[in-house]
Write a structure and sequence with these properties.
Chain A is mainly α. Chain A has a domain at 44-68. Chain A is built from 2 helices and no strands. The mean pLDDT of chain A is 86. In chain B, the strands form 3 sheets. A two-stranded antiparallel ribbon of chain B has the order 1-6. Chain B has a two-stranded antiparallel ribbon with strand order 2-3. A two-stranded antiparallel ribbon of chain B has the order 4-5. Chain B starts with a strand and ends in a 14-residue tail after the last helix. With 206 residues, chain B is α+β, with helices and mostly antiparallel strands. The longest helix of chain B is centred in the C-terminal third of the chain and has 15 residues, at 165-179. Chain B has 7 helices and 6 strands; from the N terminus they run E-H-E-E-H-E-E-H-H-H-E-H-H. Chain B has a domain at 4-59 and 120-192: Alpha-Beta Plaits, CATH 3.30.70. Classes of the chains: A mainly alpha (73), B alpha+beta (206). Chain A binds chain B through residues 24-39, 41-46, 54-55, 57-59, 61-63, 65-69, and chain B through 1, 68-73, 75-77, 81-83, 85-86, 123, 125-131, 141, 143-148, 152-153, 158, 161-164, 167-168, 171, 174-175, 178.
Chain lengths: 73, 206
């Protein structure tokens, strides 16, 4: 009787050991965009890994492609 | 660098839906999911205005605040992204977003709501930049390729501006000065605060 009770108690107390944690892990860490990609579609004119170069390139690209007042009419 | 921002110039948008098409094509967005859409106010009435709407990558993003599994994160450039491996598709972000940005594919047999999908400012997700895994989950990472969002770069009238906040504000300000009207920046007050939209701050509200 004691043996059965011990087995039951062990089964109940150890049941939670198989539970997967249900707390959120949050989002994974992301690589910054200025690090570039390994694919062949990178725009020319900047150096991957150089943040300043990337920022300057995007600013110039934005002005050239979106601000038509910069163009000679 | 300032924060990445979108501006839609309602004086220029002609409701061509080129931005919607560019986005769908660039990221191979599935049927039924529209990361970007064009909304027309007073449709059919003379003086109607159209604006292109997507995730505005808010300064204080409500979606981030309500997500129960903390799947959102913000990049150094202010782009609000999410991790689809963590998202449970609960839809809270959809209720919280003032722009209707979060989209949910229904591909299951019984139309089960899938993981949330939204505009990434063409910045992909947490997977390796430019990888196949990133493309399949979030679409192309154009920012890491040194490019700006496809919707803005494809806009035929340059109504939709995207990029560094200082740069797009400068372009828009120059236009307003040149034409002498149309200074309304739709959604900027909601996304980036009333001060950003050139309005006085609301007093008495936290």
């Amino acid at each position: 009787m004691i043996r059965v009770a011990f087995i039951l108690a062990a089964a109940v107390s150890l049941a939670a050991c198989g539970e997967k944690p249900q707390t959120s892990s949050g989002a994974k860490l992301d690589t910054p965009a200025f690090q570039g990609t390994s694919n062949p579609y990178n725009a020319p004119g900047w150096t991957a890994g150089d943040k300043t170069s990337w920022e300057l390139h995007l600013k110039a690209r934005g002005q050239n492609s979106q601000n038509e007042y910069n163009r000679v009419n | 660098m300032a924060r990445m921002k979108f501006v839609c110039d309602a004086e220029r948008c002609i409701e061509c839906n080129g931005c919607v098409t560019a986005c769908k094509n660039e990221h191979e967005v599935p049927w039924g999911v529209n990361r970007r859409r064009v909304v027309t106010l007073n449709d059919g009435v003379p003086g109607e205005k159209s604006i292109s709407v997507a995730c505005m990558h808010c300064s204080d993003a409500p979606c981030m605040a309500v997500c129960p599994v903390n799947c959102f994160y913000r990049t150094d450039e202010g782009v609000v992204l999410h991790d689809k491996d963590v998202c449970i598709g609960c839809g809270y972000c959809s209720y919280a977003c003032p722009f209707g940005a979060p989209q949910f594919p229904s591909q299951g047999t019984f139309g089960v709501r899938g993981k949330m999908d939204k505009c990434t400012f063409c910045a992909g997700g947490p997977e390796a930049n430019g990888s196949q895994a990133e493309f399949e989950k979030y679409g192309r990472n154009r920012l890491a390729e040194g490019k700006l969002p496809a919707c803005a770069e494809m806009c035929s009238t340059k109504a939709l501006l995207a990029g560094d906040g200082d740069m797009v504000a400068d372009i828009f300000r120059n236009r307003v000065v040149q034409r002498g009207k149309g200074a309304e920046v739709w959604g900027w007050g909601t996304a980036y605060g009333s001060k950003q939209a050139g309005q006085p701050p609301v007093t008495g509200v936290k």
